[in-house]
Amino acid sequence: MVAVSKQLFDTACRDVSCNVIIHPWNQSCFWAAPHLYKHALIGSAKFYSIIYLAQILMRGKKMMRKDQWMKMGEYYVRSTLLGQLVTATAPNISCLIRKMMGDKFNSSTYLFIPFTLNGLFIYLEPPSRRGLVINLFCNLVIEYYLKVLQRAGYLSVTKAQQTLMFMLGSSLLFYLMRLEGDKKERTPLFWFFTPEKVRRKTEDSKKVCPHEGRCEKYVTKGFATYFGVGLGISLARVILPKIRSPVKAISSIRGKHFKLALFFGSYIGIYRAVVCYLCRKQGVDSALYALPAGYAAGISFLFNPSLGLSIASLTAAFKLYSTILYEKKVLPSNIPLPEILYCFCQGTLFNARLMDPDVCPNYVFNLMKSCSNGMSEEVYKSFSGVVRNAM
Fold first, then answer.
1. φ and ψ at 284, to 5 degrees?
2. Which of 42, 188, 300, 380 is deepest in the core (most CB within 10 A)?
3. How far apart are alpha carbons 104 and 87 in whole angstroms?
């Protein structure tokens, strides 16, 4: 469907009843809510189960402790509530605003304002995880606006340019992460790999690489571990939705499902190999080695190219740099800038899902469909039908 302009929306939807384009499963605003809250809870629980499974796999040995499982359980409940409340309260807010405006819709009050306002539910996430969600949504908004500019003909982002963006982002990101290595608390960041801190050379140890044991084993173990993590995530996406038919699920596995595993494994393997080479060549470890190591590792992007991923590497690096700016009082700490930014990003993205689906990031489609347990597709079907009839 084409992008729905303000003029087209006013023509098609301004005077339409809310049960047509907000809650088509029930004519009553009140009685439509329980149905949506139920499906939003089920959908959010399913969606975040995959997210947390991936995080458990990536945490590895850290999950051997009971307190880590308790913490992950608490975080899972809080994330599920976030998904449910964001999904289910937006129609309530939209209907309420429509009533206040004399039973009229406009292009802002339909989805953008409701999803911007209920973005405040981000406070359900603990601070350590909140930054990860905010960073993800910032990435998606940048991706969305880049696609808008591409469609308008103002720029073109090729696979080669995306690869270069990822290589540069990885280079800066790993460097800043190693600089943070000596801090008691690192900046919360959801990335594939947290590099070891810089090894300080002492008289007691002649080892210069940031690890114990042989370099060959260190590099091989990194590749194998993250190859397994990537493969586990990919297979979970394929098998879990078809778990009731195991044979059918296994038979649906294809070569493309190994792309993420190859990306993860080569990304970490190349990074570790370059760092070890430079440490042994120079006779001392340094955070600066992360610059060429991260840049070289970025070539693994070709296994799993994604505009969103290339943007994510740069924004993650900027997030670490912003921590430095906060510490130096360049950015004010008494204004919740990240949370305000999240509210805007959420409103923009969820509004784009219906109003501008051609360039809306695929992750947003999956997020809304999953967390609403398919209810968002009913809304889109009804909304697009109204718009088509008015064209």
1. -160, 150
2. 300
3. 22
Q: Which of 52-66, 171-185, 215-229, 356-370 has the lowest mean pLDDT?
A: 52-66
Closest CA to 86 of 277, 385, 350: 350
Sorted by sequence, the CB contacts under 8 Å of residue 258 that are 6+ apart come out as 231, 234
State the first-to-last Cα distance of the chain, in angstroms, to the nearest integer.
11
Are 365 and 353 in contact by the 8 Å Cβ rule? The answer is yes
Residue whose C-alpha is closest to residue 167's, from 63, 309, 58, 285: 309
CA distance 4 to 7: 8
**Which amino acid, residue 343?**
C
Nearest to 376 by CA among 389, 390, 360: 360
Helix (H) or strand (E) segment spanning residue 251: helix 246-251
Q: pLDDT value at position 64?
A: 77
For 257-291, what is each residue's pLDDT tens digit? 778 889 999 999 999 999 999 999 998 899 999 99
Q: How far apart are CA 355 and CA 367, in angstroms?
A: 16
Count Cβ atoms within 10 A of the Cβ of residue 186 and give its class: 0-12 exposed, 13-18 middle, 19 or more buried: middle
Contact at 8 Å (CB) between 56 and 98?
no
Buried b or exposed e, range 228-250, using 16+ CB within 10 angstroms: ebbbbbbbbeebeeeeeeeeebe
DSSP, residue by residue, 7-37: HHHHHHHTTS-HHHHT-TT-S-HHHHHHHHH
Q: What is the pTM of this model?
A: 0.79
How far is residue 135's CA from residue 131's CA, in Å, rounded to a whole number? Answer: 6
Output DSSP code: residue 159: H
Task: Measure the CA–CA gap between 171 and 153, rounded to whole angstroms.
Answer: 30
- Give the Å distances, CA to CA, from 296 to 30, 158, 228, 267, 319: 56, 19, 21, 9, 22
Question: Which has the closest alpha carbon to 123: 337, 332, 339, 319?
Answer: 339
